[in-house]
Fold these 3 entries.
Entry 1:
Amino acid sequence: MEFLYSARFVTAEVWFLLVNIGYIAIYVLIRGTVFAIRVWRLFHARREVRERFERHAQETVEDPDGYDPHSNRPILSREDRKHIQELVSLVRLKIARGALAEARVHVVAGLSIDKFDRDLNLLLASLYEANNDHAKAELVYKDLIVLYAGDPEIYLRLARSLALQEKYEIAYEVYRRLLEIDPENFEARELFASVAFTLEKYEEAREAARRYLKKFPANIEMMHLLAESHICLEDHERALEVLEKIQNLEPYNHDIRSLIDRIRHEHASRSPDIV
């Protein structure tokens, strides 16, 4: 009993209490630290999600189905758009080097990301044309016109494809529509004049040739077409004017000299007063 009241016992009891308090303090510290780490991770994760959402919102306009409600096209991330641009550049390089099979592989890869991409579809059509498969190119252009109704290049390519297949009536309508969209497209006007002449629409061919020659007055081929249109319309005076201009540019062209003589003779026979 004396030991329970001795100084050694009291000292041991104090140390025992201190050890317990230390253990409790360490336990509380550890649990508090774990809890703090969990709370920090939770808030950090929420912030990460919020930042990712905001970043994605800057790149695209969100749609529940992942499609643009106006064009019904898939919404692409910035990375996808960049990848498609890189593929377009790569395909153009492959085509320039004549590696058409490799170019087609990259086109297909790009279209698997966005089957409506304008540049990739134009490149696909050009690959069809390189293989003389103008019918497939025509289908691609027709699909693109639905998506890009006001794009002059697509109209121009479609009309050229149609003309190469000798579908002149449809090509004529496409060129006419293109010139309504883009009246200053002189490449289209030149080809429209040629198709109109082929269809024996000489008045429209003549008008298109005239407008083209106002911009490019020294174009020999268009001058020939204009002269032929005048002749078919029996406008011999204007035909002679154009033929004489051609002769000045081609003084050794004996066919033009013979044609001028023939037209003068026909014109004189219909106009007795002309000496």
Entry 2:
Amino acid sequence: MIEWFKSFDQRKLLIRLLAFLILFNFGWNYAQERVGVDFYNYWLASKILADGGVRQFYDGPSYPALALKYFRAAREEGGRRLAAAQFWSPSIGTSSTPLFYAITGLFWSGDYESDYRRLQNISLVLFFLAIVVLSRICGYETGVVELGIAGAMTQFQPFLLDIKVCNVNRIIFAWLVFYLVVSRGARESPMRQVLGASLLVGAFLFKPILVFVVLLIAWTRIVRCRWKQLGFEVLGAAVAVIIAIIAAILKFGSAFVWVEWLEMGGYVFNNTPVSKGNWGLVPLYRELWGFDLSSYAAPCFLALSAVSLWLRARFLKIEREPEDLLALSLGLLTYMLSARLCWSHYYTLALIPLLLILRPELEQSKIWRAIRLGVGLLAGLLLSAKPVDDWLNLAIHESWGVYMCCGSFVLFILVLTETLKSNTAIAARNISSSLTKSRSDCQVAKDRPLGDGKIGHP
């Protein structure tokens, strides 16, 4: 038994098991004290679909009689369902994509309590497994990292808010990590290229906040001239679109429901106030200082991301492993810093670029590693919001949102620097080698004896 425990792999397994128990126990207890207002919203939407209660699904707010009917049903059941219904009453919110309702509807039994617990359990388990896998991708070797993350999650407000409202960002987190696993080594496997693109575009059609992730990962293929790989990935994207259309037909009876969702989406994106938890940089800046950044933020942050990836491809001819991870991180942060709608729990996904920045990098100098670690931890604290707010106690409207925006901006700068650091080092080496070669050539010319009868004799 002692020899078994001394085994390094077995110790890591035990530490990870302890980390899982800490995370799951805390998350489960925290979930039991909440009502899950977002869960009620899309659980009710799926129930309305099953009951055949509406003709135009994305016109839910115009059905007050239907809303009243389901509110009465919630009042009869009481408990968590009634508390969530009171939050939404008298409206019915239908803002997610058709693919979202088609997939989530597969897991509902019709019983609110059991469905709520099922989704919370699935989300917590998938989130922890994704943390373990992402830690390996980023190069963390020991299970102590997962233990530290499990402890940190008890204070990480985006994660807690996702549990509180029972949204699906923990599932999206796992979905993206699964994509990274599939995409590793995809250059040698057309099948992995098709599957990876299907997963990524499917995630985008499930949750459109990944729009910049899709664009930047496609951009990395273009700047490296991987046209064959891009072709297979376009095929994978087409497969995802076809599946989304078929799912809409099976769930709603028509593929045109996607058009209805697009028409409704503009209203939701442009009319969600900061007070409801819309804590993106653009809405917060408009609320606090009265200036609309929406026309400038997306082009600016997207251009910075695209240029940094182009420079990386230009100078770094041998692709390093985390390039898709870099593009994915930049895409997530670009959305958080430029979208008109960015719910507070979306910042759960910022954990991906945060783990990228805090990863061990032995090739870097000790000074840069210390700076990267220190600033990365600062970004993590800002994203956590509450610990910083308790410490500073600033009288700022929607202060948690301000801290999360600042954390995501700091993280964006760090990921940009991480993308460019290899370019800078390589460019410096190229310049240095060129100067050295020039000095050597000058020295040879200087040392060559004159009048030696060779070509070039003055």
Entry 3:
Amino acid sequence: MMINLSKIRLTPFVLAVITLFAAACQDREQADITPPEIEEIAIDGIAVTAIQVEQGSTLNLTVHARDNEALEKVTVTLMENTNSPTPPTGIYAFNQSQTTGSDHAALQFELTIPESIAAQMIAKIVAVDANGYTDQLEIPMIIINSQAPTIAGSSNPAEDANGEIHINAGQNLLMSGEANDADGLQSLSVMLWDANDQPLATTPIAITATPMAFSDASFDQAVSGRYRVVIEAVDNSGHRSYWGRIVIVD
């Protein structure tokens, strides 16, 4: 059966539906799919790609971001750098968001670093636009505790160019080093941690002098995997420091 299209009459209602459908399709085609852009991270007005700060200080961080239509919010989160061989001293949790409806914003975040912390962290910055598209940037952040003990460490076998120590299963890992502090040392320990930062073995070092050197700590691990060897020093004022390296047991 043949249909003569020229004889079909479109009612006003049908025409309205067709018009709305066509407009919706056009809006969909023109929908914004361009993500926002984090242009710059600045500390006290100076652009940075890495952050180094001392404990007990205040950090004024400015995020410059833009979008072709409108930004919705910018979030700054501090996370532990899990690739760092040195565990953090103390805990500093920071997660803060700021909203904005403009296409360009310079949002300021104030970070007050605790007195008790020393850590290698990552500052993660995420910008979100009104359509849910995102841009993110991660920059390294080192928090220095100048009052904590200083530690130097070395291993046999020695660490490689990537800062990792490789040993065979059952092979002894020999550790030596020195710790020092102007307030005197309260304790010194050498530890082997598993991949989840749980201690497997600890060798306490008797404090007989300051600085305190040692060369008699050894570990062996029969199970292949990823570990962390850690030297911990605590001074007489309670300040704590760590030295660490990743250990790969082949």
